[in-house]
């Protein structure tokens, strides 16, 4: 008869008559399970281990330096962590090195089994047998039948004794490994519990790193918190008024006693040292809420990128996709609040390849100055107000910053859109980045907002040969009451600030950057210009284009408007005046600008080719004195040869002397629109630039044109041949042309503007518009 005792790691087989030895072993085992035994013929025991969980895999091929059964792994054990003490260890030792006389029921007489049968003696293996078994276990913990027979013959043991010894030894080893692992996990759990308690205490009472005071208000009611915010705002306003009163009245007028800069609220909310156009940002220092908004916007951007129809449908021009607003409202919850009244939505999506790797695009978008330079014509000015979160390693992954920007449409009829927004950058996979923008103006009820940016941005994925695949999503809301009726179709169609315009500008600028930075010079260009000279000319042309955009949109400079007639009339010329003090890159004196937007029944590309060509320039340039001859041209890309920079001279001049004037012109075009800018430059200054000199000191007063395709379906406005017939045979073949013109009316900054100067500039731009119309017979 055989009694089987089941332990945590396996089973121990023994033979006996009445179960006395069995009872003793069960009583000494802390993990034994009471089982009912009955007389039966015992088959060779099969040891099965069923651990409570699957631990990390350990190799049973132990190293040769094992001593005492544990080897190198046992050297790291802490005896105090193993668990149950000497009783368990004693049992494990017996299970491996002790045996019962007559180990298997097969060796007993079948007739035996009465209570008077002789009890088998409990004995240990000899030290020599234990040593040999341990050595064999080190070499192979799972011996086969042949190896066990060899050991049994050599050690004078039965085959089943050798088999049981190896089974019990493996069980012992596994039990010790599990105990050691449990002890380590318990230590890690205790460390995490202590760290969790410390973090909770730190969150409950955060301290300001700058002043050492409490960083949040603590448990305060929401209404009380808002009242304290309003109270601090009023105190600051009172303080500013008192300072002004002291200055103008000459009497010291004190505000409330106490320093306004050390109020409890300032310690609780915090202040930023960066003053971006005097925009207060102390309400945005609740960084946890700001970071939640950034993560929510990122999740929405990724979902908008993945979902197709019915959320997105093809746009009318077929070059992109437009958002189904009703489906969007059903699918998403607006993360910046409800849409204000009179606001309209512009949401578009498009995809394309860009000649720049993903990391370079990310660095450009996260740098405010490089972002504004890259998207000239869309971004007027940009700045970083505060860096909410950054990566200690210097990577842009996880970077979250609060930014301010002026978004513009190149027309005097379009208002500037000031947006304050979060920009969050995330590295999702190898070569895949996502950047999302979302407005935070909604949390400032006392601030007027004409534009809101819902989760918008791009997902950039690296391709081969330095290219990237870019998916751009632009989702914005505008106050329609601020938009002129003539431009409302342009805004609603997405042509104004849609995803197609952003991506097309990025593609064109990256292609230009690649061509300019290339050491080789195209064969079609003049080889007399060195690579350094090409870069200097490009920098000068880019500054000229940025200055023209600032003239059209009346930003960057302080312009004083000049009222002439009805300001709401789209056919009227907008006149503005500023005084230049001779800053680098500008001539000193009084500058007068004139801008006007008109509709023409001419396709955009045809109008663009007409205005950029030197052969047709004398048909509209009222200040030209004879025909122009191209001296040098620099290509800015291979996709469209019209993207170029040209330098012209007047054919009336026999040669370029030190006193003659040259004409610098840059033309840019893509699927979203076209820009032509030009300015007069002295021959001496241009020679310096062509030789690689500094172009920032060259004074410019640029003029030019901005052209976009209309969205009117063959309709114009009152004084521009409303409903003119289709010349090109298309449903929409018209263009919106914006003309921008500057003139230095006096070289003295202190001079007064005369009525004669205003009338002269007004007459010049009106004559230019009439000549352009006459060239296409659309008067």
UniProtKB/TrEMBL annotation:
Basic residues biased stretches: 116-125
Stretches with biased composition (Gly residues): 10-21
Family that this chain belongs to: Belongs to the HD-ZIP homeobox family. Class IV subfamily.
Region (Disordered): 1-125
Species name: Cuscuta europaea (European dodder)
GO cellular component: nucleus
SUPFAM superfamilies: Bet v1-like, Homeodomain-like
Location in the cell: Nucleus
Source organism, top-level taxon: Eukaryota
UniProt keyword terms in alphabetical order: Coiled coil, DNA-binding, Homeobox, Nucleus, Transcription, Transcription regulation
Protein name: Uncharacterized protein
Domain spans labelled Homeobox: 116-176
Keyword Transcription in annotation: yes
Coiled coil: 170-202
GO molecular function, one term: DNA-binding transcription factor activity, RNA polymerase II-specific
InterPro entries hit by this protein: HD (IPR001356), HD-Zip_IV (IPR042160), HD-Zip_IV_C (IPR057993), Homeobox_CS (IPR017970), Homeodomain-like_sf (IPR009057), START_lipid-bd_dom (IPR002913)
UniProt xrefs under CDD domains: homeodomain (cd00086), START_ArGLABRA2_like (cd08875)
Domain START: 283-515
SMART domains, per the entry: HOX, START
One family name in Pfam for this protein: START
DNA-binding region(s) in UniProt: 118-177
């Amino acid at each position: 008869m055989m009694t089987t005792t089941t332990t945590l790691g396996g089973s121990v087989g023994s033979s006996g008559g009445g179960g006395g030895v069995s009872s003793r072993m069960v009583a000494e085992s802390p993990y034994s399970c009471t089982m009912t035994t009955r007389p039966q013929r015992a088959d060779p025991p099969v040891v099965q281990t069923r651990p409570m969980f699957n631990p990390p895999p350990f190799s049973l091929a132990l190293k040769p330096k094992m001593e005492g059964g544990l080897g190198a792994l046992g050297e790291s054990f802490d005896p105090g962590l193993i668990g149950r003490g000497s009783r368990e260890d004693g049992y494990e030792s017996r299970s491996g090195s002790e045996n019962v006389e007559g180990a298997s029921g097969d060796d007993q007489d079948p007739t035996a089994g009465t209570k008077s049968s002789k009890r088998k003696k409990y004995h240990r293996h000899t030290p020599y047998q234990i040593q040999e078994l341990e050595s064999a276990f080190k070499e192979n913990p799972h011996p086969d039948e042949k190896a066990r027979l060899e050991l049994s013959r050599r050690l004078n043991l039965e085959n089943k004794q050798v088999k049981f010894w190896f089974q019990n030894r493996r069980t012992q080893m596994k039990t010790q490994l599990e105990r050691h692992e449990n002890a380590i996990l318990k230590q890690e759990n205790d460390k995490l519990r202590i760290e969790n308690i410390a973090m909770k205490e730190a969150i409950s009472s955060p301290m300001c790193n700058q002043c050492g005071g409490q960083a949040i208000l603590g448990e305060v009611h929401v209404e009380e918190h808002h009242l304290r915010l309003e109270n601090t705002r009023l105190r600051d306003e009172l303080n500013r008024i008192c300072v002004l009163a002291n200055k103008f009245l000459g009497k010291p007028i004190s505000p409330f006693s106490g320093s306004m800069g050390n109020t409890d609220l300032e310690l609780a909310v915090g202040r930023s040292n960066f003053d971006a156009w005097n925009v207060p940002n102390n309400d945005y220092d609740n960084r946890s809420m700001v970071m939640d908004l950034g993560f929510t916007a990122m999740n929405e951007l990724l979902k908008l990128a993945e979902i197709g129809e019915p959320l997105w449908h093809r746009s009318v021009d077929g070059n992109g996709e437009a958002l189904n607003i009703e489906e969007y409202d059903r699918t998403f919850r607006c993360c910046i609040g409800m849409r204000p009244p009179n606001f309209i939505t512009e949401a578009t999506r498009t995809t394309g390849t860009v000649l720049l790797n993903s990391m370079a695009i990310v660095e450009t978008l996260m740098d405010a100055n490089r972002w504004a330079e890259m998207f000239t014509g869309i971004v007027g000015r940009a700045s970083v107000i505060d860096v909410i979160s950054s990566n200690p390693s210097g990577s842009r992954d996880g970077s979250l910053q609060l930014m301010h920007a002026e978004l513009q449409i190149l027309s005097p009829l379009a208002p500037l859109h000031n947006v304050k927004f979060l920009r969050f950058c995330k590295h999702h996979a190898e070569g895949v980045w996502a950047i999302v923008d979302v407005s935070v103006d909604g949390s400032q009820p006392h601030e007027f907002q004409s534009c809101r940016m819902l989760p918008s941005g791009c997902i950039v994925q690296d391709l081969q040969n330095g290219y990237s695949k870019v998916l751009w999503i632009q989702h914005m809301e505008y106050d329609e009451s601020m938009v002129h009726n003539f431009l409302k179709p342009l805004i609603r169609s997405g042509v104004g600030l849609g995803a197609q315009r952003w991506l097309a500008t990025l593609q064109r600028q990256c292609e230009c950057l690649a061509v300019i930075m290339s050491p080789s010079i195209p064969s079609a260009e003049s080889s007399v210009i060195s690579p350094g000279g090409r870069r200097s000319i490009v920098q000068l042309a880019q500054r000229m284009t940025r200055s023209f955009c600032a003239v059209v949109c009346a930003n960057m400079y302080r312009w004083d408007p000049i009222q002439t007639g009805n300001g709401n009339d789209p056919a009227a010329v907008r006149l503005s005046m500023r005084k230049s003090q001779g800053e680098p890159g500008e001539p000193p004196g009084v500058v007068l600008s004139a801008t006007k937007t008109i509709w023409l029944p001419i396709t955009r590309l045809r109008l663009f080719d007409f205005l950029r060509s030197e052969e047709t320039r004398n048909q509209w340039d009222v200040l030209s004195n004879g025909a122009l001859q191209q001296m040098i041209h620099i290509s800015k890309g291979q996709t469209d040869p019209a993207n170029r920079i040209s330098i012209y001279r007047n054919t009336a001049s026999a040669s370029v002397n030190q006193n003659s004037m040259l004409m610098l012109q840059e033309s840019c075009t893509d699927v979203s629109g076209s820009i032509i800018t030009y300015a007069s430059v002295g021959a001496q200054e241009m020679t310096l630039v062509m030789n690689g000199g500094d172009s920032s000191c060259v004074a410019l007063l640029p003029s030019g044109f901005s052209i976009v395709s209309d969205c009117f379906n063959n309709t114009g406005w009152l004084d521009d041949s409303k409903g003119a017939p289709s010349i090109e045979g298309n449903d929409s073949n018209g263009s919106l042309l914006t003309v921008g013109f500057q003139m230095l009316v006096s070289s003295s900054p202190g001079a007064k503007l005369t009525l004669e100067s205003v009338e002269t500039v007004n007459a010049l731009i009106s004559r230019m518009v009439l000549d352009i119309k006459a060239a296409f017979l659309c008067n």
